[in-house]
């Protein structure tokens, strides 16, 4: 609603706010965050959509492959598989990756958001939570391991 009111894109909003609300990370961050969630058995939410439909997966990652054997002529693929969900993500389609923090009545909700060359969402990843509950500490810590572009993280 705010974006429409000010006639700006989500990408423009990310760039306009302070680092406490949004900062850009390396496009490889998606692999790091998915591996961390899988290793820690952390339940996450994956939002994948287009102009007509949104698919949401909630749960722990059972199978993840983001290895060189997934290399093809049109990109390196990250595959997330569960019995009721299968995601195939072409990493070459990711132009920008952002860690975002949005204020809600339940505290801040943080996500990793992947954008394409047009600034449109490819994928949003959140820690699993229900309305009325605060964000998972584990998810917050996993995102904190993703350094802003241009900042070394030791």
Automatic annotation (TrEMBL):
Region feature Disordered, mapped onto this chain: 134-154
Spell out the Pfam families in the cross-references.
Answer: HemS
| Single GO BP term | iron ion transport
Please name the InterPro entries in this protein's record: Heme_Transport_Util_sf (IPR053733), HemS/ChuX_dom (IPR007845)
- The residue range of the signal peptide is none
Q: What residues does the Haemin-degrading HemS/ChuX domain cover?
A: 7-146
Recorded hits in SUPFAM superfamilies, A to Z, give: Heme iron utilization protein-like (SSF144064)
Highest taxon listed in the record's lineage: Bacteria
Quote the protein name from its UniProt record.
Haemin-degrading HemS/ChuX domain-containing protein
């Amino acid at each position: 609603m705010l974006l429409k009111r000010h006639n700006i894109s989500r990408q423009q909003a990310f760039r306009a706010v302070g680092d406490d609300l949004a900062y850009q990370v390396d496009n490889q961050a998606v692999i790091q965050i998915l591996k961390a969630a899988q290793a820690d058995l952390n339940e996450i939410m994956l939002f994948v959509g287009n102009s007509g439909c949104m698919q949401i997966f909630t749960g722990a990652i059972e199978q993840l492959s983001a290895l060189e054997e997934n290399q093809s002529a049109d990109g390196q693929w990250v595959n997330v598989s569960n019995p009721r969900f299968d995601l195939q993500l072409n990493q070459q389609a990711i132009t920008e990756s952002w860690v975002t923090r949005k204020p809600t009545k339940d505290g801040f909700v943080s996500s990793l958001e992947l954008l394409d060359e047009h600034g449109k969402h490819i994928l949003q990843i959140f820690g699993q939570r229900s309305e009325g509950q605060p964000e998972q500490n584990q998810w917050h810590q996993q995102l904190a391991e993703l350094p802003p572009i241009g900042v070394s993280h030791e």
